[in-house]
Amino acid sequence: MAKIIFLGTSASIPSHKRDNASFLFVYKKNFFLIDCPGSIVYKLKKVGVNYKKIHNIIITHHHPDHLYGLPHFIHTLAYTKTPLYIFSNKKTITIIKKTIKLFGLNKKDFPCLHYIDVFRKEIFLSQRGLKLKAIPNKHISESFGILFLWKNKSLLYSSDTTICSGIIQTAHKSTYLIHDCTASSYFFKKYPSLYKMHTDAKSLAQICSGKLPKKIIPFHFLLLNRKEENKIKKELKPLKDKLIYPCDFYSITL
Q: Rounded to an integer, what distance in angstroms lies between the CA atom of residue 167 and that of residue 112?
């Protein structure tokens, strides 16, 4: 059985109900933390997960809202001897290593850190029937989405991205899709620079009009304008029963 637990569903600027984007993928009692913004230990405790059971962290790119909580998370693991595997691209790994060294978190009292380049192999992790693959997206240099494969199911997490062929092609073969849905098309027209790095709700609905994915989960909401969330939901209406609209601390069994 696989499960998703959302720890945060907002974009770079949290709202009063949503924190920065992050979630847990759970498979056969193994936990995979996808991106690591702030207050991760607090959020894990809130959803009933022992933070000491987190051994795998995937950082999809080096923007601050996706990794600024990592030093604190490692700091909380002092004296635990917990091995921690950090999966990302080369550029992000370099930034993380420098940050860890800056805070002195590479000393013996802290976890043994193992860094894995997700682009080194086609399948960057294979564990107990679960396979993970990095899918290049179109956001910043070396950023990527994640394809989860298990049994006869698959989940694609696009991470932050504009519409791009690699993500679309993989999405149309996937059972489930968690995709960037930063704002409504109204908001994008007001701030057109967003088109270069993110996806609007109307475009997301259009690319998911076929039989697959079976379920679409919009993610990464930038709710800066009044009534913006209502506009997003209105543009996603064509997805009908395919749509799962998440909130922080919401869980889904796949």
A: 33
